[in-house]
Design goal:
Strand content: 15-25%
CATH topology of the largest domain: Alpha-Beta Plaits
Structural class: alpha+beta
Radius of gyration: 20 Å
Number of strands: 4
Oligomer: single chain
Shape: elongated
Distance between the termini: 20 Å
Order of helices and strands: HHHEHEEHE
Number of domains: 2
Number of helices: 5
Mean pLDDT: 94
Strand order of the largest sheet: 2-3-1-4
Helix content: 25-40%
């Protein structure tokens, strides 16, 4: 499916505020209501727009620590199996297979450093196949669209 400039404007408007009505989106992107509605429906049907959700302020939820935890796996353990197992851990909000010095990258949110340590030491490192971890802490979120 080809995504054109109007589609990109629609996606941008909905990423900024997923609660906009189709009429409000149409006004923002310069299309008629019916044309905009058809485009949104097509973007949803084709899987370009995969859903809508509420963005939250983690601090208001008591989650003040956000970190990326690189995972190095034992060679005999498949990355896909390990990634799916690690995805079940409470506090792990994203799992990525990556290139470079680590095999997997986990995004973890936690109440505080003690909670983060507990997640990594008790949960992540406890999985058979995890050889080591490398943590990088988010100091400030500058931009996040996805």
């Amino acid at each position: 499916m080809a995504v054109d400039g109007f589609d990109r404007k629609i996606i941008s408007a909905l990423q900024e505020n997923g609660r906009l009505s189709n009429l409000e989106v149409a006004e923002r992107v310069g299309l008629s209501h019916s044309s905009c509605s058809r485009r949104i429906a097509r973007l949803e049907q084709e899987g370009v727009i995969t859903g809508y959700r509420a963005r939250t302020d983690r601090k208001h939820l008591g989650l003040s620590v956000r970190a990326f935890c690189g995972v190095i796996r034992h060679a005999e353990v498949g990355w896909e199996v390990l990634a799916n197992q690690l995805a079940t851990i409470d506090g792990v909000v994203s799992v990525f297979a990556v290139s470079g010095e680590v095999d997997l990258m986990l995004e973890i949110v936690a109440r505080d450093m003690a909670h983060y340590s507990q997640v990594v030491l008790r949960d992540v490192l406890a999985f058979p196949g995890v050889s080591a971890t490398r943590s990088s802490f988010v100091l400030e979120e500058v931009k996040s669209l996805y």
